Write a sequence for this structure.
């Protein structure tokens, strides 16, 4: 067992022993290292002013992703390469092409959000040398600018992709050295603390089960996109915090003829290509989950484990008929995901258990769709979300699974609407009946995201939309023509 | 050839012959651009902290209205790291930061809480984290009193006004309405807006000797911070220095709202003898600081079958919050702009600055103007739908003609909207695209489209006449480098760059020679807020005045020393004096050796303006800035969601001091205005707590929300007919109102579901929910 966290910060190696579970990367950068280019705008992962890159090995390949330093716990940086704005430069030691393009296109005004934008676009620049406008917009869903109206930022991003290539990039030059350093970090359990605040990094999944058996009330932290706010906003203690984001066993994705199994630690970004391949009808939906920085760290397992009624993955997973695999020292247990959500704030997860994997049946010939409605199209929390899996035999609906988020205390199937479809003809009348029936399935709340009336109306209309899309009248709003 | 001392009447004009880097009218980059992109631009939180700096946090109320029965702060005091707990008793001077002399803005609620989130105490600890954790330990018992949150509830509850209301009146509105062939009445609810400056409020106070204190603070108004801190410390203003190099955005949110934070830091710093910093968490910032006023507007418009407006009456009920702050001038400006660009023959407009149990609302880009302008646009839309005509025709039929009087009796003399409309209609291909929209909608699909053109006419000047003054200070050091200081503050708009361009051109030197420095009350006293879009108008002129003084002195010195006529002296990067020539540095060295004063303080006050609030008459505005935009949207009639497909905008900045920076202002203001009217919703629960108090719940536009096609151009032919700095016009606020085009385009798409038989009457913000509910209403 180790008691030292180590990671690379730009070009230096950092070794720390006094780290609490609730210590954030942003505070470490700003308060301890006085690296002040990374800004705090919101402390909840929504504005992107604190964006840094985190480099990790994915099956031996070094990959850098933008993340929010404000809700990134320092302990979870173990074995990573953290890259901040201070490290960015061009091969000539001057401005990096992204930075130069920003200056030339007048893409900063007050400048406070700018380092965060630069880091996101730098991440994009590395991942995708010639991005389209839509790809740039997607990459910037987690970055807010209040001054420019974004137009010059998009122009700068396009121009940067024209200027030079990754051969000019400082990080590319350092890649071998960094890869070597990161691969030399051997798995081991690490425990650190600052005062009473403890952080534990398990060695592997078995060790995680052991730790949870010893500390059943521990806070499991994967991407910290929710737990981060418990700390920064609610000032809630999370000790001992058990970090699982580094566990490669929880990162696996396997596909068989009938199902897809993904480890609980798979992030939204990591699963995105699988959505595109196996559930292309849900690609737009997936793209409406949070911003890029959050998708890079937020995990599907965490989204399920945490049980929020407005999480995006549960409606889709319920409609698809997914199964949650829970693990503890006593072994594994499988639960149909819809049964996992018991009530608001209550899930079928015993102390000592953790979500290990999610098994998703493949869709086969079934008709799949998923829609989300929110006040702002991107990086907003769901007002109402719905996913469909409709099975037909010829012209008859054999089975219907329709699951909603934002309509009740848990993500939940629309039983009345499903019943209105099951065994009925695959027709406009059947879906109209389902749309009318869904009004009785839920008693949604009114809050700042939407009124109950709006939620009910939209729920019915999204059932109508499903029918319209199945029958070819697929008018939809889109950023792309 | 540059650069003999210019005669006064030449100084406003463009000088084609000045060949220096960074002269006025050049599109040069923001002076801090390279620091922005490398993360090296220092904001207040980035300044080196003195050893032993402490950190403060506020304790906020958890009710909307009530008496504090008891406040147990013992656990706060006992918390780790705590050095001080501050309540009203700890304030040496008055417990008040009211910017208007009404004494209604306590730092800490003195026994009576008037909104949820009102500061009731502060705690100072060794670290910010300790201070925040300690603040959460307070135990406060309240006696809850009834609260009224919105302006109509406040009116019905008899809450009264926070300040004197205003009536603007010309002609006889009632008679005009009664005699008009047609009439429409309605109610329009217009939401407020959080500034969402990316850099939140922050102040750091460093105690000095005797009664002195230095404050670093993110502020648009250093002089007011100075006065407030002096006031609460009970020391003269001369003991207080306020500094700001730059803000991470202001938008009006740092015109008065930073006073409280600066004062808390200053009181603690003086008491403890240590530097004290306060930086509230974003949620606290959004709960405890004021926003754009929301309005409920009851209107009546009389018109004829040609679409000509005959008379207008309007009652403007504003949610001002618990105190006046800037609500007086904000609600005044709403009335000043309730005509937007249209002539109302008979008119009466009344403001109702309602007291409510919410945070005290404040300045926000446009300062009430947008809420007035959008009412005018509602009126022309109503008329258009009532007559079955394109609202654009109604707009054009009612545009001011030069010489016509506004409701405040100022004659419009610089009308340029007809030309802007012509150019915009052509550039946007409006008429063909409108027909395409109508054809598309006629097919009756799920996605409906809408298109609209809306104009803006915005009055430039502070309506408080005395604020229209500015100072600048220029030093030339004896190595030939220039130090430029003025009373304006940099919040991203590029003010420092523009003023430096004015100085570069006036002095005939390259801009690289000019060092832009932080704004400080030590160098230029008694400044006005950098607000009302006035920054470059006022400070550019003051800097030009300083340049003129220096050039005068230097020219006289050169003529005397070299024995030549003044007309043969030209100062610049190369100075020509008769037959002699030398570098600027050499010349300055000569001047220094000859004991010429190489420093000058410039001053400017805006001419011509006057305003009598009692009579509601005067010329509050030096000139108007104009613009227009054409927006096209697509709306999903199943969910109410929408996409802005295309926007074309033409905006008037006179002869631009820096076209690329001005274009940036127009683009940014447009998106901010669009955000105000679309996804940015302030939502209070029934207990009076603001629940949209962070970016997770309060949704400003993203990159993916901007128009898919966004063509912005400046009316480059426009020249300010008044003698403003280089004949430019102010740009900060006016283009904000171009975002209204998106709102009216949404209304057009919604109206399509009922064949345009009636105005959609969307309330603002037109969230997807409001859009869908309007669609449902019209379908019935």
């Amino acid at each position: 067992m180790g008691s030292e966290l180590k990671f690379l910060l730009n070009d230096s190696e950092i070794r720390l022993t006094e780290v609490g579970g609730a210590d954030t990367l942003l505070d470490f950068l700003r308060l301890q290292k006085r690296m002040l280019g990374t800004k705090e705008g919101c402390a909840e992962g929504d504005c992107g002013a604190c964006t840094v890159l985190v480099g990790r090995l994915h099956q031996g390949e070094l990959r850098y992703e933008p993340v929010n330093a404000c809700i990134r716990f320092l302990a979870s940086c173990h074995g990573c390469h953290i890259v901040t704005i201070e490290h960015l430069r061009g091969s000539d030691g001057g401005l990096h092409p992204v930075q130069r393009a920003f200056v030339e296109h007048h893409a900063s005004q007050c400048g406070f959000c700018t380092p965060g934008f630069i880091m996101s676009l730098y991440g994009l620049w590395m991942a995708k040398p010639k991005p389209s406008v839509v790809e740039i917009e997607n990459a910037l869903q987690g970055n807010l600018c209040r001054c420019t109206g974004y137009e010059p930022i998009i122009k700068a991003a396009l121009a940067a992709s024209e200027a030079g290539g990754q051969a000019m990039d400082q990080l590319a030059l350092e890649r071998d050295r960094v890869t070597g350093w990161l691969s030399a970090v051997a798995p081991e359990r690490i425990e650190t603390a600052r005062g009473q605040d403890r952080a534990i990094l398990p060695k592997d999944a078995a060790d995680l089960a052991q730790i949870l058996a010893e500390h059943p009330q521990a806070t499991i932290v994967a991407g910290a996109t929710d737990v981060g706010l418990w700390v920064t906003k609610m000032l809630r203690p999370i000790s001992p915090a058990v970090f699982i984001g580094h566990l490669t066993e929880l990162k696996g994705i396997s596909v068989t003829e009938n199902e897809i199994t993904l480890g609980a630690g798979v992030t939204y970004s990591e699963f995105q290509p699988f959505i595109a391949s196996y559930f292309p009808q849900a690609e737009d939906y997936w793209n409406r989950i949070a911003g890029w920085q959050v998708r890079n760290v937020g995990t599907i397992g965490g989204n399920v484990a945490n049980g929020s009624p407005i999480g995006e993955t549960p409606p889709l997973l319920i409609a698809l008929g997914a199964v949650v695999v829970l693990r503890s020292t006593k072994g594994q247990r499988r639960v149909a995901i819809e049964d996992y959500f018991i009530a608001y704030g209550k899930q079928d997860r015993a102390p000592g258990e953790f979500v290990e994997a999610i098994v998703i049946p493949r869709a086969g010939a079934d008709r799949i769709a998923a829609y989300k409605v929110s006040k702002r199209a991107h990086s907003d929390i769901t007002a109402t979300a719905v996913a469909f899996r409709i099975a037909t035999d010829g012209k008859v609906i054999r089975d219907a699974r329709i699951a909603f988020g934002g309509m009740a205390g848990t993500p939940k199937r629309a039983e009345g609407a499903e019943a209105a479809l099951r065994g009925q003809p695959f027709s406009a009348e059947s879906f109209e009946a389902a749309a009318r029936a869904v009004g009785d399935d839920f008693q949604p709340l009114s809050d700042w995201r939407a009124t109950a009336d709006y939620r009910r109306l939209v729920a019915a209309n999204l059932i109508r939309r499903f029918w319209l899309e199945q029958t070819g009248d697929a008018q939809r709003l889109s950023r792309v023509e | 050839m540059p650069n003999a001392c210019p005669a006064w009447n030449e100084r406003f004009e463009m000088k084609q012959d000045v060949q220096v880097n960074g002269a006025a009218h050049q599109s040069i980059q923001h002076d801090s651009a390279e620091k922005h992109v490398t993360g090296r631009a220092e904001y207040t939180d980035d300044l080196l902290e003195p050893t032993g700096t402490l950190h403060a946090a506020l304790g906020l109320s958890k009710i909307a209205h009530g008496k504090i029965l008891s406040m147990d702060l013992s656990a706060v005091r006992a918390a780790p790291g705590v050095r001080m707990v501050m309540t009203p008793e700890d304030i040496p001077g008055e417990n008040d930061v009211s910017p208007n002399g009404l004494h209604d803005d306590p730092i800490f609620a003195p026994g009576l809480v008037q909104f949820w989130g009102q500061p009731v105490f502060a705690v100072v600890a060794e670290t910010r984290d300790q201070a925040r954790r300690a603040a959460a330990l307070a135990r406060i018992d309240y006696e809850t009193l009834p609260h009224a949150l919105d302006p109509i509830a406040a009116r019905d509850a008899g809450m009264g006004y926070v300040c004197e209301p205003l009536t603007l009146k010309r002609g006889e509105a009632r008679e005009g309405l009664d005699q008009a062939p047609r009439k429409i009445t309605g109610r329009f609810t217009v939401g407020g807006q959080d500034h969402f400056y990316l850099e939140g409020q922050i102040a750091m106070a460093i105690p000095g000797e005797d009664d002195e204190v230095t404050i670093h603070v993110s502020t648009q108004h250093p002089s007011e911070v100075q006065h407030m801190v002096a006031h609460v410390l009970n020391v003269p203003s001369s003991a207080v220095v306020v500094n700001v190099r730059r803000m991470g955005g202001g938008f009006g949110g740092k015109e008065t709202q930073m006073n409280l934070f600066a004062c808390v830091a200053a009181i603690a710093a003086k008491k403890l003898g240590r530097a004290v910093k306060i930086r509230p968490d974003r949620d606290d910032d959004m709960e405890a600081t004021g926003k754009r006023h929301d309005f409920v507007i009851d209107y009546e418009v009389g018109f004829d079958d040609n679409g000509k407006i005959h008379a207008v009456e309007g009652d403007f009920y504003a949610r001002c919050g618990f105190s006046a702050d800037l609500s007086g001038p904000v609600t005044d400006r709403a009335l000043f702009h309730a005509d937007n660009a249209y002539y109302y023959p008979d008119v009466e407009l009344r403001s109702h600055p309602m007291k409510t149990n919410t945070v005290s609302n404040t300045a926000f880009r446009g300062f009430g103007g947008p809420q007035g302008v959008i009412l005018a646009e509602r009126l022309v839309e109503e008329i258009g739908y009532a007559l079955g005509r394109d609202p654009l025709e109604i707009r054009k039929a009612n545009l001011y003609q030069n010489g016509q009087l506004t409701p405040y009796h100022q004659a419009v003399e610089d009308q340029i909207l007809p030309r802007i409309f012509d150019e915009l209609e052509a550039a946007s291909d409006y008429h063909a695209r409108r027909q395409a929209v109508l054809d598309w909608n006629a097919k009756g699909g799920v996605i409906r489209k809408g298109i609209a053109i809306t104009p803006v006419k915005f009055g430039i000047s502070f309506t408080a006449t005395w604020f229209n003054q500015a100072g600048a200070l220029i030093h030339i050091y004896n190595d030939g480098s220039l130090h430029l200081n003025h009373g304006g503050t940099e919040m991203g708009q590029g003010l420092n760059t523009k003023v430096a361009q004015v100085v570069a051109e006036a002095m005939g030197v390259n801009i690289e020679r000019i060092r832009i420095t932080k704004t400080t009350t030590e160098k230029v006293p008694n400044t006005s807020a950098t607000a009302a879009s006035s920054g470059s108008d006022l400070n550019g002129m003051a800097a030009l005045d300083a340049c003129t003084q220096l050039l005068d002195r230097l020219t006289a010195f050169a003529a005397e020393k070299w024995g030549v006529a003044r007309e043969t002296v030209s100062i610049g990067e190369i100075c020509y004096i008769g037959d002699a020539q030398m570098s600027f540095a050499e010349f300055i060295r000569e001047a220094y050796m000859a004991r010429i004063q190489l420093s000058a303080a410039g001053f400017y006050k805006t001419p011509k303006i006057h305003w009598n609030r009692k009579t509601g008459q005067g010329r509050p505005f030096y000139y108007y800035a104009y613009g227009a935009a054409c927006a096209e949207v697509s709306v999903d009639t199943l969910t109410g969601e929408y996409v802005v497909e295309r926007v074309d905008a033409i905006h008037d900045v006179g002869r631009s001091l820096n076209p690329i920076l001005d274009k940036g202002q127009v683009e940014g203001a447009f998106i901010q205005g669009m955000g105000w009217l679309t996804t940015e919703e302030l939502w209070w629960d029934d207990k009076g707590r603001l629940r949209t108090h962070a970016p997770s719940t309060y949704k400003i536009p993203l990159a993916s929300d901007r128009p898919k096609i966004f063509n912005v151009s400046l009316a480059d032919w426009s020249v300010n007919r008044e003698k403003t700095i280089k004949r430019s016009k102010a740009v900060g606020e006016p283009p904000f109102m171009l975002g209204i085009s998106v709102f009216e385009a949404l209304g057009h798409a919604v109206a399509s579901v009922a064949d345009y038989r009636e105005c959609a009457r969307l309330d603002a913000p037109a969230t997807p929910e409001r859009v869908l509910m309007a669609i449902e209403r019209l379908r019935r």
